[in-house]
Specification:
- With 333 residues, this protein is an alpha+beta fold.
- The protein contains six helices and 17 strands.
- The chain has a seven-stranded antiparallel beta sheet, with helices on one face. Strands 5-6-7-8 form a four-stranded antiparallel beta sheet, with no helix packed on it. Strands 1-10-9 form a three-stranded antiparallel beta sheet, with no helix packed on it.
- The structure holds FE2/S2 (inorganic) cluster and fe (ii) ion.
Length: 333
């Protein structure tokens, strides 16, 4: 599964950087919709910098650079929402959600640059399924694929389960690598054996099948993955998003659903068990979800750019090769 590049020495602590990666590009879930009311402004850390997030009176969301293009005031400290614009506290210049300067209250003529293009950096925003997604690219290139559809979230026959959010002390690439590390499912999570697994990459998408259909997942760029867990004809959907807060901190959120079953039925119990297992809240089970065990590894490990792999490891190098594209030529490690 892994092409063996013979390595003759193992790098030691001082040679290894904990998280050597730049911030990748893609769609990322930056906040839950419910946490940003119309007229509200919030400052948020993401992609190794601070951003200002605001919701206009009509419900439109903007996510912009914090510093006003005029004289650099911070829009998120004293700024206000006016209609669908954010207004700087310093001289009351206004910007819309796409970063266009819409108003300078005391100027007779708009500066030429402000007439030509948006002057405040604004990220493309999409709001779906109770979440605010932003497209981030270090070179501000427009979205190269779409936020995926999850038809289950729009179907009244599916239940709404509590969401979870976890701050994980490592780079986003490391978290996703877990999904192709089939051996750790046995040793760290206590699965009965090492499950068989398959993986394939296609452009910005990465497919994985663990345990011959038990877990079938698709990763949409670095920030979003949709997994289906199937047990006894019950299918649970896990919608997982990861946000690179900075180079060493990732905010992973999960949202789950499955078909609505009669209370107390076997199917309802299987669904509940799949859910609890996924978030690691089962106390009495032989195998443990990620919260209780993966975190110990993630929060403390160092990335090995030249790992010593064996034939029983999963397609770790395929994952790494695939992930590289999202660094826009800034990392070839
Ligand atoms: S610094 Fe923002 S309007 Fe002047
Ligand atoms: Fe894991």
């Amino acid at each position: 599964m892994n092409e063996m590049t013979p390595i003759d020495r193992i790098q030691t602590s001082q040679e290894l950087e904990r998280c050597p990666f730049p911030i990748p590009y893609g769609w990322f879930m930056i906040e839950e919709s419910a946490k940003l009311a119309p007229g509200e402004i919030r400052n948020v850390q993401a992609f190794d910098q601070e951003w200002v997030m605001f919701r206009g009176e009509s419900g439109k969301v903007g996510v912009t650079d914090p510093f006003c293009p005029h004289l650099g005031a911070h829009l998120g400290h004293g700024g206000t929402v006016q209609g669908d614009n954010i207004r700087c506290p310093f001289h009351f210049w206004e910007y819309d959600t796409a970063g266009w300067c819409k108003k300078i209250p005391y100027a007779k003529v708009m500066p030429p640059l402000a007439r030509k293009k948006p002057i405040l950096r604004a990220l493309p925003v999409e709001e779906r399924y109770g979440s605010i997604f932003v497209w981030y690219h270090p070179d501000a290139i427009e979205p190269l694929w779409a936020v995926p559809d999850v038809p289950e979230f729009e179907d009244a026959d599916f239940v709404t389960l509590p969401r979870g959010s976890w701050d994980i002390g490592t780079a986003i690439q490391e978290i996703g690598e877990n999904g192709v590390d089939f051996a750790h499912l046995h040793y760290l999570h206590g699965a009965p054996g090492i499950p068989p697994g398959k993986a394939s990459a296609e452009g910005p998408f990465f497919n994985v099948d663990i345990g011959n259909g038990y877990i079938v997942g698709k990763q949409h760029g670095p920030g979003i993955s949709i997994m289906h867990f199937t047990q006894d004809d019950v299918v649970m959907t896990m919608f997982a998003t990861s946000l690179p807060v900075n180079k060493e901190l990732t905010r992973t959120r999960m949202q789950f659903t499955h078909r609505r079953y009669p209370e107390g039925s076997t199917e309802a119990k299987v669904g509940q068990k799949l859910y609890e297992h996924s978030i690691g809240s089962t106390a009495d089970e032989e195998s443990a979800g990620f919260e209780s065990v993966d975190m110990i590894v993630w929060d403390n490990k160092k990335y090995r750019p030249q790992p010593l792999l064996c034939d029983g490891d999963g397609p770790i190098l395929l994952w790494r090769q695939w992930f590289m594209q999202f660094y826009a030529g800034r990392y070839n490690g």
